[in-house]
Specification:
Helices cover 42% and strands 14% of the residues. By secondary structure, the chain is of the alpha/beta class. The protein has 2 domains: 20-192 and 315-362, 3-Layer(aba) Sandwich (D-Maltodextrin-Binding Protein, domain 2), CATH 3.40.190.10; 194-313 and 401-413, D-Maltodextrin-Binding Protein, domain 2, CATH 3.40.190. Strands 1, 2, 3, 4, 5, 6, 7, 8, 9 and 10 form a 10-stranded mixed sheet that branches.
Length: 423
């Protein structure tokens, strides 16, 4: 999916870093996707008319929000360890506490989402029966399931007149995404990049291209994933095709590139769960990775490099969205606007260490680093200057979005790419 995420080798006795559980769950989700085709996303339920065009969208927004008022309560559900925490008390979330103090809105925060598939399966019957799911705000990846939520009318159209911080501070790369043009239903929560991670000491040179993963000198030491979505999309980049505009003929060309790599004996393993530890141990010299893998691994003492290949890398996004059955939607929208303040976005990034959708937060992280001491200052200095958390404009220009597939395309896509790592 890109269900995006990363364990790495920890020092003995070291606590799991923030982002650990979220990445581990996302890897598990990717593995599950490999076993259960994306076409299984097809669910019963009546599709609704999805508004298109400015006039239709504006009318839908007016219809939903007219008469709705702030209630002073917000129920928010997220993935595990995917928000800021108090270093002295992991059960406390400073930005949520500050939001309550400033707005008067009491927040009930739960970490119940394991992966897109299981969460959708849990709440879909409640949506289908017209019942509330018990939450006003939830995090959803920019994958096939987001499309299902939209097609079935399960998400509220957002009133952007109440989201001035998103308009002002949201990064251009996180607006008007292919999975939600115009951000009608979503705004980004956190993001990340897919590229190549490698150990320079074992490779012996710089890696700059996806074609480097065909280098005979790396035979048997390359890591790839048992994830049809990510594998297919990076292979499209490898053959010089933008995934968003790719055709069926392009997909066949990309699959041929992956088969060539496999048949040449380049790949040691296809795994979404072991590549990071294998890379750190030296079993792999290079691997398909998420950007956060390398940042967090290097914080624990590794000396890995992350590269967005010349042909491009992938940008994925997890999103905040409001269920259409939300009991307190205005409170949810108020929180959405709040997290796009640079000071708030910085606090969240300082814990989760993913790509921040608010570029102005970088200055806040630098300011916090200057005020910190000891190990925390070292970590914040690295965070505030890392292109893995705050990508440069040059890096952003090389990033592409995942191909958005309809149900029939999912079947064709899986038929091409799944056999490559299942053989």
């Amino acid at each position: 999916m890109p269900e995006h995420f990363t364990p790495f080798a920890l020092r003995p006795g070291a606590p799991a870093p923030q982002g650990w559980t979220r990445r581990r769950l996302l890897r598990a989700a990717a593995g599950a996707a490999a076993l259960a085709p994306l076409a299984a996303c097809s669910v019963p339920g009546a599709r609704v008319h999805v508004p298109t065009g400015k006039a239709e969208i504006a009318a839908a927004v007016t219809d939903f929000w007219t008469g709705k008022k702030r209630s002073g309560k917000l129920d928010f559900v997220n993935y595990t360890q995917y928000i800021d925490v108090d270093p002295a008390d992991q059960s406390k979330h400073p930005t949520l506490d500050a939001f309550t103090r400033e707005s008067g809105i009491e927040v009930t925060y739960d970490e119940l989402i394991d992966d897109s598939a299981s969460w959708f399966g849990k709440i879909q019957p409640e949506f289908a029966s017209g019942q509330g799911i018990g939450y006003d705000l939830m995090v959803v990846g920019g994958d096939s399931y987001l499309g299902k939520y939209i097609e079935l009318g399960y998400l509220a159209p957002l009133d952007h007149s109440r989201l001035p911080n998103f308009a002002r501070y949201g990064g251009a790369a996180f607006k008007n995404t292919p999975f939600d043009r115009g951000n009608v239903y979503t705004v980004p929560w956190q993001s990340g990049m897919t590229g190549i991670g490698y150990d320079p000491a074992r490779v012996g040179r710089k890696i700059t291209s996806w074609q480097d993963l065909l280098d005979p000198r790396l035979r048997g030491r390359v890591g790839m994933w048992n994830d049809a979505v990510q594998m297919g999309n990076i292979a499209l980049l490898a053959v010089g095709v933008d995934p968003e505009t790719s055709t069926h003929a392009d997909w066949r060309k990309a699959a041929a590139w992956l088969r060539k790599q496999r048949d040449a004996g380049m790949v040691r393993s296809y795994s979404t769960s072991t590549y990071q530890s294998s890379l750190q141990r030296g079993d792999l010299a290079a691997s398909l990775v998420y950007s956060g893998d390398v940042f967090q691994a290097n914080q624990s003492g590794s000396r890995l490099e992350f590269v967005i290949p010349d042909e491009g890398g992938l940008l994925w996004t997890d999103n905040l969205c409001i269920p259409s059955t939300a009991a307190h939607p205005v409170d949810a929208l108020t929180y959405m606007n709040y997290v796009y303040r640079p000071d708030v976005a910085a606090k969240i990034s300082e814990t989760v260490q993913f790509v921040c959708p608010v570029p102005a937060a970088q200055r806040v992280v630098a300011r916090d680093a200057d005020a910190a001491t000891g190990k925390r200052r070292t970590v914040l200095d690295a965070l505030g200057t890392s292109p893995l958390v705050f990508p440069t404009k040059a890096d952003q220009s090389k990033l592409r979005r995942l191909r958005v597939l309809d149900e029939e395309e999912e079947k064709q896509w899986n038929a091409l790419f799944e056999p490559i790592y299942q053989a």
